[in-house]
Amino acid sequence: MTLLTTVFAAIICTAIWYKKEEARTLKVGTLCLMYWGASLMWLIDAIFEYAELGAESFVPAPLDMLNDFYLGLSVVALGLIIWLVILFVRDPKGVVKAALFKKNK
Amino acid sequence: MACFTVPAAEAVVTTIAGKIIKSKEKKEGLSGAVNTKPESEGSEKIRWATKIGWLNKMLWGGSALLAFEHVWHGEVVPFFPFLTAVKDGEAAEMLHEMATAGVCMALLVTAAWGMMVGVVSMFEKKSKKENKTATLAGGLA
Question: What pLDDT, in 10s, does the model give residues B25-65?
């Protein structure tokens, strides 16, 4: 479920990055790469789990699935927070700089 | 257990490599050895520092998110020795997981990046060829 949640987040981000010029300016590409990297790593985890448990790995207990989904959402939120920090540090549109400069005036 | 540490270690190496390549490309650019036109121009090649940057982002981002998952499951703790497997005497099992799953993770991410770079190189070659043909056609006209 964590893998699925992250893959969907990666697909949505990539579609937004492809469609909108504004998204490319706002470094959505970094977010895409982060989610794709994590998805590939979880894919390996899933393959190893499948090798160990077989088809049983596809039928998790409802509570485990809910916990994994909750984890997936938290991971997506963490990714967004990391992206926001990068965005504010890089400040491609100069908004943060302008706001700070305005305050100092 | 600690599989994310292998891609994280690779990320450290690629980050250092990226910094070295960036400074090298900057120097070459200043000396006029390579074309320093902006990347947005069709025929311009994407710099290697940028390409390595994609790998860095995938490795660092993936490792960070996986580290969070390990914290979630109580496999990583904020106090020494940081890994519960070490504390519980399961270090051999942990090392085995790092050598199998961890190495596979690093290899898969690197392979995906390799494919990305390959596709980009193909596009660059195609665009260069098209530009050449356009120039030739223009000359003939």
Answer: 888 876 655 554 554 445 578 889 999 999 999 999 999 99
Which of B59, B105, B107, B116 is best to mutate for the A interface (most A CBs within 10 A)? Answer: B105
> For position B56, what pLDDT does the model report?
95
Q: Write the residue in B59, B60, B101 that is nearest to A45 by C-beta.
A: B101
CA distance B107 to chain A (A): 10
Q: Supply the ipTM of this predicted assembly.
A: 0.89
Q: Where are the domains of chain A?
A: 2-104
Q: How far is CA B35 from CA A33, B39, B81, in A?
A: 28, 10, 50
A 52-81 residues with CB < 8 A to B: 71, 74-75, 78-79
CA quadruple A29, A79, A87, B7: dihedral, nearest 10: -70
Residues listed for chain A: 105
Show the domain range for B10. 5-140
- The minimal CB distance from B57 to the residues A6, A30, A43 is found for A30
Q: How many domains does chain B have?
A: 1
Please state the rounded mean pLDDT for residues A8-19: 95
